[in-house]
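Lecture 7, part 2: worked example. A protein chain together with magnesium ion.
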Amino acid sequence: MKNLIMEMEQFAEDKNIPIMQKDGIMFLMKYIKANNIKNILEIGSAIGYSSILMATTGDDVHITTIERDENNYMECLKNVKKANLENKINCVFQDALEVNLTENNKYDLIFIDAAKGQNQNFFEKFKYFLAKGGTIITDNIKFHGYVGKSQDIESKNLRQLVQKIESYIEFLKTNEEFDTKFYDVGDGVAVSIRKDETN
Ligand code: SAH
Ligand code: MG
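Predicted complex, written out as structure tokens:
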């Protein structure tokens, strides 16, 4: 397992695939254990790195992970197989915004780590599939340190993307339904918990 993880880290570095940073994934794994999380929905599998590590946190942790890029999806399948985790990780090849989940599927944790400009759309689509007491975690809230400095960015595409993350942060901060804490680990992680657990 350790070798596979190292191979995946190397592969991601060589191919420029933005997998979670070490302290970010450690934070996530700790959170899963501390909060007794069993059912996870991940948006953005890439090569399965975060899925595989999350799945190792407990025997009864199950993950559904969605990926729209075919090459990454294939790589994810391959790695999940190598890790012997096919019974715990369900890889789905689809655009997350087009996925149809049934209402009976509820998740203790929804981990958003896909197209950064779509964070709010993912959040608003998938919050209905959060189990009572569940958490939505969003990665790359700092976006390599650009967040908070969008006005200084020359490239229009990058500036617009960073502005979207900035407005997502505002959306989280002003959200009536969820309480969000921001953590300065990895590339920045937001942890959102539904305020009223009574209904
Ligand atoms: N969670 C992974 C890294 C994901 S990188 C890890 O830490 O190991 C982001 C991935 O999200 C990319 O593979 C990209 O193809 C995918 N993605 C982006 N937008 C998506 C969408 N709308 N639906 C599904 N996957 C998406
Ligand atoms: Mg990420």
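Residues 2-197 form a domain with the Rossmann fold fold (CATH 3.40.50.150). Strands lie at 39-43, 62-67, 89-93, 107-112, 130-139, 178-183, 189-194. Keep this in mind for problem set question 3.
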